[in-house]
Amino acid sequence: MAAAQEHNLESSLVERLLAEMDDTARMLDEGIPLEKPKVDYITDIDTRREIFLQIKKIQDDNNISLGLNAVGLAIILVAPIDQLQRILNDLNMTTYPLCAIVAASLFGTMHADGVLGIKAFVREGRQCHGMPSAFWERLAFSLRYIPASARRSAACPIRGTSDDVCRARIIPKLCRGTDMEFHQYISMMLRVFWDKDKAQTWDRLYARGWSPYSLEGRFLISSYLRQDMAEAKLALKPLAKMEDGSVIVQLFWLKESRLKPQDFLFKPHESVSFEDVLKRAGLENNQEWGPSLVFRKDGQMLLSGQLFILKGNLDVGIKAPDFELLQILWDLTQVAAICGAVNETDDLLDEGEKKDYLDYCVCGGEDGGEGEDEGENEDENEGEGEYEGGSEGESQGDE
């Protein structure tokens, strides 16, 4: 309910803005940025503080060593409040010892699906959008690249430029490579901490019959801005969907985190405050956003809080962007920024490392049987060079 109220509130604000100002619609339609008062970096922070304290109490009461990590913190600060409160209510209504099992499973999802999923999300984005424009121009089959002959009718709705505009995926997705299963981790995270509808929207991206050559789920944007989004430096918050399907978005520059996704924030019964954890993550100032990094075509700096409109362009085969996919992208990019998913993303990439980490999560955060796995890890390392060589060639075919 809270998430729906927030969406309706923002939509009504945009509608009123369009109704009260005669030239606002024209400005947005022409790609002229319109400044709107910036929101807090973390919305409803007082309510989220209470949720944080309740989750810490659950960890302490059940003596769970596999407690809150950086991804868990990001989830608490981004996920819909009504879903988080529903999870807590279910836990509080469960009696011991079942409550301890359910709580351990909750933290396990943060550590297993959350960590592996958000790391893979950033890796996918880098592989899909991190290459320079010259690379894509050499690929005749690239759907990302827009031929020069078609660029006259295509421009980035945010920068206003046409020389760097591309048909980028809203959600990064490769058809081959080492992160094919990452959608399963994200799906579980969305199902537990968001809602079933979000998870189903995500799962539809991986349904049978999907083609890597489809233009569905793409939008027009500067390749430089899409790279910043892939690095969790920039995010677009969808505010309202217009009658023609176009989506009004608000631009925000995100802060750089000092954390890594799998970092433990505290041990059971450790005295630590919500403010201490926010400071460790670099989020002590809730009114401050990240530094602006890119200029528009007119020489003006892109600022947090500015409004833009994302439209379809049939001349280059792009329909109006999907509002729900933009919402998922906004949420996941925020989670990636807060938990520091861009920091050492190659951790846990090797299949052996991933298996050891998942075993560690299953054991509740306790190391077990390192000596038994030593020989097995050596065998896996013998084929590591061949594995890496194969994945490098496979990781570039989707766009």
Write up what this structure looks like.
The chain is 47% helix and 8% strand. Mean pLDDT is 77; it is low at 1-7, 133-142 and 368-399. It is of the alpha+beta class.
What descriptors fit this protein?
two-stranded antiparallel ribbon; 15 helices; disordered C terminus; HNH nuclease domain-containing protein; alpha+beta; 399 residues; 47% helix; 4-stranded antiparallel beta sheet
Brief description of this entry?
It comes from Trichoderma harzianum CBS 226.95. The chain is of the alpha+beta class and 399 residues long.
Query: What percentage of the residues does DSSP assign to strands (E)?
Result: 5-15%
- Classify the helix fraction into a percent range: 40-55%
| Mean pLDDT figure | 77
Low-confidence stretches: 1-7, 133-142, 368-399
Q: What Rg do the Cα atoms give?
A: 22 Å
Q: Give the count of structural domains.
A: 1
According to DSSP, the number of beta strands is 6
- Strand order within the widest beta sheet: 1-6-5-4
Topology:
Blueprint: H1 2-20, H2 24-29, E1 34-35, H3 45-61, H4 70-78, H5 81-92, H6 98-129, H7 133-137, E2 165-169, H8 182-193, H9 196-204, E3 218-222, H10 223-230, E4 234-241, E5 247-253, H11 274-280, E6 306-310, H12 323-339, H13 351-362, H14 370-382, H15 384-394
Antiparallel strand pairs: 1-6, 2-3, 4-5, 5-6
Helix pairs in contact: 3-5, 4-12, 6-8, 6-10, 6-13, 8-9
